[in-house]
Amino acid sequence: MSTIDTLPPLRDVIATHQLSARKSLGQNFLLDLNLTAKIARQAHDLNLCDVLEIGPGPGGLTRGLLAEGARRVLAVEKDSRCIPALNQIAAAYPGRLEVIEGDALEIDPLEHLTPPIRVAANLPYNIGTELLVRWLTPRDWPPFWQSLTLMFQREVAERIVAQPGSKTYGRLAILAQWRCDARIVMSLPPEAFTPPPKISSAVVHLTALREPRFPANAETLSNVVAAAFNQRRKMLRSALRGTAPDIEDRLISAGLKPTDRAEQISLEGFCALARALDA
Length: 279
Ligand code: SAM
Fold this sequence. Notes:
Elements: H1 10-16, E1 29-30, H2 33-41, E2 50-54, H3 60-67, E3 72-77, H4 83-92, E4 97-101, E5 117-122, H5 128-136, E6 147-153, H6 154-161, H7 171-179, E7 180-188, E8 193-194, E9 201-208, H8 218-230, H9 236-239, H10 247-253, H11 267-278
Parallel strand pairs: 2-3, 2-5, 3-4, 5-6
Antiparallel strand pairs: 1-8, 6-9, 7-9
């Protein structure tokens, strides 16, 4: 039962608009509005910010964001069946919700948003990582957003916050942690969703740092990390052979052992290696 606004319960919204979940669109809906309001609270200071939401679906998280006081929400949804339900929410919160029907991978939301901007979403699993990598690798830093509060499959969330030495440590951890603070702030079991997915989920909150944690050229860092983790079981001197003819010297000048493997190297170590490669 909804306690956060006077709109109909989400089960009724889904029945009225015949929103049977489509797997092809990664549709697993959150129907508990107290839970969506709790997720919205993880984004902090909403009343001072515009919020970009990708994939609002029937609007559970959208309603959470608005009830928690978001200044404005821009919601981008690909499934045209959801638009009438979202327009009903817009009518209940005059001037605070803009709905765009379209593909989040194609749309530039910036012209519809006023800084400061936060991003909050229960992302469709099939484009979640791609969107995150785009948000983490803009041309200029700081990015357009102050924070990202994002629901992922638990396994992806663990890759974002992973530390050296763990199996999940890789390119996503380096990309995220180089220029952000990244934390898992909530865990959700499959039963929290309708229909329940096979796996658990988690909400990750990333806050953009003003400056990268360690100096490095973004492209060099991204390339060397990709090469190192592409062959994560190999020693760095072999995995990075194609990166520079004198790779062993460069590894040593970065303070790394050529016999180390990618998953043993800290973020600071990869940044030192990127600088050594550019020297
Ligand atoms: N936010 C809702 C919730 O929490 O109940 C729905 C989340 S559901 C996991 C993902 C949503 O993303 C669906 O509504 C789906 O239609 C939408 N979606 C899928 N691909 C999309 C895309 N490329 N662009 C925008 N929305 C998309």
